[in-house]
């Protein structure tokens, strides 16, 4: 009995085992690949060394030089591909990996400006805030840093106090300083630094400084700038400062007390006389009847010896007017067919010297008469050459002027060889100061270059020296100011790109 039971139990177990094996199945694992490319969105250029992450699975690869990446042995299914690179936003795409296909995905990276922190606000280094007595040439210096260590560029704006537009602007600076020059004396300046890291721009505060007081100018002169005349002052050491900025202003003449400057300006459209302080401040129009003649740049005028009036030409009349604009009167009337061009007034005998022209610039007469217009006499005549306006010597016994030594004429009024002349009013002797003079049987050189013109001469306050303009006879060359001894010797260049000088 026991043997039969054992056999039956064994058979039952075997049958159960066979039944379990017959119901169990294992599916094979299916694999594929995921690949793609990472490019910059701005220009579609490949991104090298971008980090690409595949999720799920957290597998990570880097792009090659072509911006390509690849994940092999990827189990079929749905995945997220994430691309990132420092300084750029993270880009994400989803892919479906299936058997027999290799998903290809392109991800475009854009600048992640939200992660770029702005530079620090510029901090003042020099000059000190609200400092005074600064030089007219100085270095503006500041400091700014960038938390992302981006390269910084700066724009600097410089204003005169009260001006709406910058006097100067400096853009694209990579250094944290800039040298400014040509500043005016006794002037307050405002300046601001704007810093950029290429993403963010930060405006700095507005700082100010003031330049020092005006120096004691030795000379004033005119300079042509962008088709206009502007007035300048200069020291004996060569420091130059601009005095006027608007419209066109020329022929500066200093008052007898050396404290004010009178000049011609076209501010009122018609040419009028103005006066101002030595620093260009307190500008006031004096005349109501305009100064006028054949050529605007050829006109000249003068102060009365006591500094209370201006004497000036207006076509066929010579007027005097007080510097406050009152008391206009006619001093002299030109003879028929002639026009006044320029004048000078000496306290020695209270006399006036003046030049008239005919219908053209080449017809010239110089005359001398009393301050009331009486006792006029002609002292020099040239009917076929350009002549400049006369000025008295300190003693009042001589006239100094320029005149062309040739009789050349054209429609533009050109001169070929204008020289400086001194006329002795007592003897009538005329001396050419631009010509080499003979001293002790030797020739003393004046250095006047052939093909140039000497123009607009004036005496120094002591009478020991001359100041004048020299320029090429083409009429379009640069004009420079020279000095020389009273006899024309020892000529020296004083100021470049300058004309119509006056020796204060």
UniProtKB/TrEMBL annotation:
Q: Which PROSITE patterns match?
A: FN3 (PS50853)
Q: Which GO terms describe its molecular function?
A: carbohydrate binding
Q: In this protein, which residues make up the domain named Fibronectin type-III? A: 118-216
Keyword list, A-Z: Plasmid
Superkingdom assignment: Bacteria
Keyword Endoplasmic reticulum found? no
Residue ranges annotated as transmembrane are: none
UniProt xrefs under InterPro entries: 6-blade_b-propeller_TolB-like (IPR011042), Carb-bd-like_fold (IPR013784), FN3_dom (IPR003961), FN3_sf (IPR036116), Ig-like_fold (IPR013783), WD40 (IPR011659), WD40/YVTN_repeat-like_dom_sf (IPR015943)
- Keyword check for DNA-binding, yes or no: no
Output the Gene3D superfamilies linked to this UniProt entry: Carboxypeptidase-like, regulatory domain (2.60.40.1120), Immunoglobulins (2.60.40.10), TolB, C-terminal domain (2.120.10.30), YVTN repeat-like/Quinoprotein amine dehydrogenase (2.130.10.10)
By sequence similarity, the record places it as follows:
Belongs to the TolB family.
Supply the name of the protein: Fibronectin type-III domain-containing protein
Species the sequence originates in: Spirosoma rhododendri
